[in-house]
Amino acid sequence: MERPSLEFNLPDTHEEGKLYVVDSLNNLNKLNVCPAESQHSLDEGENTGGTGESMAGINTRNQCLFFITFTLTLIISLALVSFVIFLIFQTRNEVDQISSRLLSEKKNIEELKKLNNIILKHLNQSRIKE
């Protein structure tokens, strides 16, 4: 009695499965690594035969985007620094005004103390006479 074989002889399905898995992994890698715009550019590059013209356009666009971002960053930081300097000067002026007020109030308090002493002396003298 012969035992039936549990193994099936399928012609090259294993090789096709490997190719399908590799192709799927490549597509998944493209989706994960490349942004949407870059993916379209890569697809166009594959369709045109990969001449590299689309990559040069992407590089130029990236450089322009970098310089625009850099310029905007510089302008914003310059505006912030100017605002901080303005606030420093305003604060300095306010502190100067407050210190001058304090000095004038100190002088007024000193004068009031002198007047108080004079009044007390006068009251003390008038009590002694009575």
List the SSEs and their pairings.
Elements: H1 13-33, H2 36-47, H3 53-129
Helix pairs in contact: 2-3
Organism: Panurus biarmicus (Bearded tit)
Transmembrane segments: 64-89
Keywords: Membrane, Transmembrane, Transmembrane helix
Structural overview:
With 130 residues, the protein is an all-alpha fold. 85% of the residues lie in helices and 0% in strands. The protein has three helices and no strands. It has helices at 13-33, 36-47, 53-129. α2 runs antiparallel to α3. The longest helix is centred in the last third of the chain and has 77 residues, at 53-129. 0% of the residues are buried.
Outline:
With 130 residues, the protein is mainly alpha-helical. It has helices at residues 13-33, 36-47, 53-129. 85% of the residues lie in helices and 0% in strands.
